[in-house]
Amino acid sequence: MMNDSTLAKAIEKAGLAGASAMIVDKDGTRFEGAWGKANAATGAPMKLDTICQIASMTKAVVSVAAMQLVEQGKLTLDGPISDVLPELADAQVLDGFADDGTPQLRAAKRPITLRHLLTHTAGFGYHFVQIEILKYLQATGMPAPGSMGNYTLPLLFDPGERWEYGVGTDWVGFAVAAASGMTLGDYLQHHIFAPLGMTDSAFRQTLPADAAAVHIRGQDGALDVLPVNLGAGEVQSGGGGLSSTAPDYARFLRMILREGELDGQRIVSAETIAEMSRNQIGDIRAGYMGTSMPELAQPFDTFPDQHTGWGLGFLINPDAIEGRRSANSLAWAGIFNSYYWIDPSEGVAGVFVSQLSPFGDPGALDCFETLERMAYA
């Protein structure tokens, strides 16, 4: 077992309340640990199996669910997604604002597909990432997506023409529910969580009393608890609503490493995993997130020196990183500073879970890099 003192020191230096982390390979766990507090106010310790909000790490799970339904012929990657989600039949593109602030809309040039949604090329944004979406919500009085179950935003561009991070995977979740005839939570429980032994993963309207709190730094640098639960909305958010644990998510990562199978349970075919792991967006660059609300998320770009791509649910780095992941590894993150990577070439993956806002915290990113370097030392 690896020595955790280096990571423990990094977590302390970063000023995180607490964190849990694991490194796994195809056969099991190489490293695991938990440090600090799950709740800075109560002093409750962070444990390996402490339930945390994994936010946008939900996206990879829901992407796999969609691909199960593609395998069954219940969804198609390139047919109009309006066949199952008629709300998206007449998508509108935001073409700027009039002098009085009125949004200017036009019809999209082509239909939105599941492939567009899975690759963040459908045109959808997030109100906390793109200022145009925030201006649109302010101009129309429309609530932010998720707060009232509304996700019908205009597109920022025509489908397939750019990469922008947004609510596309929430629409993937709606498509999974529509095509399966189940709620998204029930579908994930029956077809992913139960087969994989992910016993602590769910959409939770109420978090358990011993779940980790989300923290924010006060002006004096002390950690305050932020009362937030992304799973408490009216909609089960395929883009960010799950709570889970490091061991549960590590089982999901091992399934990806094992090309769709874990402990005799086949979740998707090896061919599907290969397709999900392949860059799907050609010459478009993926991965850069700006910010319109830095109190929620800092600007983020995992590898600014690489022309990063996107698969069916994952960021892909085309070049190897010295001392870290191989070329064509898969990765993404959650808004409360949780991160994962999957390296199919080396057969290793890791997950780092903390609960701190805003996203992109430099200390948390240093901790994640420390964990990753431990895997390759």
Automatic annotation (TrEMBL):
Superkingdom, natural source: Bacteria
Keyword Glycosyltransferase: no
Keywords linked to the UniProt accession: Hydrolase
InterPro entries with a match to the protein in the record: Beta-lactam-related, Beta-lactam/transpept-like, Diverse_Enzym_Activities
Domain spans labelled Beta-lactamase-related: 5-359
A single MF term (Gene Ontology): hydrolase activity
Name under which the protein is recorded: Serine hydrolase
Organism (species): Pontixanthobacter aquaemixtae
